[in-house]
Structure formats: structure tokens, C-alpha cells
Design a protein that fits this description.
alpha/beta
């Protein structure tokens, strides 16, 4: 399976479990961070395809980590799935407002982890593909517009020359009649 997944959790056991579950499912590029600031640095140094982010961590909670990553151009579009034991709807709403795309509840259920990760990696790949298509089409349209402008300029120059010849021809005819 493709995708660079960054797992952020201050509990070593959770990092190991998530890494093991994803590794067993065939995900090969897995990175982990125990500290929120390190996670931000890692994400900015090499933006992952997906982030699994614990909510309750010392120093900085996952909502703040998410907000900071969403403010950066490099990581703005990286989907972030919160991993939390929080069950309150308000906490989930805070996560979505911070920029998260989903929640995985603790204790982990392997099928849920795999389903959510697969879904969001697929959506991210589709989004990137569409962005590439739009960029390519925009480039092609810009080239067509430039070519059209060059053609218009060439036509305008030809029209100016023909008008000058026509005007000169009329002057020549008038001169002969006198």
C-alpha cells in the first residue's frame, strides 16, 4: 500500500500498536513521533500523506498540532485523523474545526483503523490526482491563450500592412487620373 503515514502519540504502546497494525496491513512508510513539536517539525520537513494524531498529549494537545499544521502551506492539505479516547461530541467538533478529517476511538479496533486509513489515503490520492489534472489543464489553456494572442498580433500586423498597401494603391490610382 502506498502513503507516508505519520503517527503521533505520547504513549509508546499506542505508537507500537498502530505501527504494527499498519505494517501488517502492508503499509511500508510509517514514521512516528512522541512529542507534538517533533511531529510538526517532521511533517514540515517531509509532508506525509496522512497523519494519525493523538488528542491528549503533554505540552500541546492534538487540536493545536492540527491547527498549526493546517496553517502551513506544506501541510495544509494533509488529512489528519484524530486518535482519542474522547467520546464527547464537542471534542469531535473541536477536532473538525481544527482541520481534522476523522476520528478513531481508543481502544483501537484494527478493522476500523485500517478502513479509515485506507479511505483517507484513497481520498488524498484522488485529490492529488485532480490537482495535477487541473494544473496540467491550466498550463495547456495558458499555452493556448498565449498562442491565440500571438496569432491575433500577427493578424493585426498583416492587416496593418494590407491597409497600408490598399491606401498606397488608392493614392497611386488617384495620381494617375490627374
Amino acid at each position: 500500500m502506498t502513503g507516508d503515514i505519520l503517527i503521533v502519540d505520547d504513549q509508546t504502546a499506542n505508537l507500537q500498536l498502530l505501527t504494527q497494525v499498519l505494517s501488517n496491513a502492508g503499509y511500508q512508510t510509517l514514521r512516528s513521533a512522541k512529542q507534538p513539536k517533533l511531529a510538526i517539525e517532521m511533517a514540515l520537513a517531509k509532508p506525509p500523506t496522512l497523519i494519525l494524531l493523538d488528542v491528549r498529549m503533554p505540552e500541546m494537545d492534538g487540536f493545536e498540532v492540527c491547527r498549526r499544521l493546517k496553517q502551513e502551506e506544506l501541510t495544509h492539505d494533509v488529512p489528519i485523523i484524530f486518535v482519542s479516547a474522547l467520546q464527547d461530541v464537542q471534542d469531535r467538533v473541536r477536532g473538525f474545526e481544527a482541520g481534522g478529517v476523522d476520528f478513531i476511538s481508543k481502544p483501537f479496533q484494527e478493522p476500523e483503523i485500517l478502513a479509515r486509513v485506507k479511505t483517507h489515503l484513497t481520498l488524498r490520492h484522488i485529490q492529488q490526482h485532480l490537482e495535477d489534472l487541473v494544473a496540467n489543464r491550466t498550463t495547456a489553456l495558458a499555452a493556448e491563450i498565449d498562442e491565440h494572442r500571438q496569432t491575433e498580433k500577427s493578424l493585426a500586423r498583416s492587416e496593418k500592412r494590407l491597409r497600408a498597401l490598399f491606401d498606397w494603391a488608392n493614392d497611386g490610382i488617384l495620381t494617375m487620373e490627374d
